[in-house]
Amino acid sequence: MRAFSNFERRVNFADTDLAGIVHFSKILGYVEEAEHAAMLSIGVAPASESGGFPKVHVECDYRSPLRFGDVASIEMVIEKVGESSVTWTFSITLDGKLVATGKVITVYVTSMGAGSVIPDVYREALSA
């Protein structure tokens, strides 16, 4: 397992619904931002001319709301690096209180969208 816990995201007004709470779909966008930041921090491009890592499965359990101006902390953990996939788990907290938890599975695809084996240089960085 490899953990990345330094990603923070401030809630924008446009992310909230009429109740003043972050819309559930925006939470998954925050997770994707954290995933990309984690990948870039280890030299893995989330998308490039040669290919990328689209999501094929997402799970999320919402526990507590986020509101405009809140600063959420997002921890991403690489649970498994497979031949062509990466399984991430995530947790989002606000001032130490759990907001959401979940899992994301991505697969490596070529620039033409065909499934492929993760390049060795990426596999090494993701598995370190």
From TrEMBL:
Entry's family note: Belongs to the 4-hydroxybenzoyl-CoA thioesterase family.
Keywords: Hydrolase
Pfam families hit by this protein: 4HBT_2
GO MF entries: hydrolase activity
Name of the protein in question: Acyl-CoA thioesterase
Enzyme Commission number: 3.1.2.-
Gene3D superfamilies named in the record: Hotdog Thioesterase (3.10.129.10)
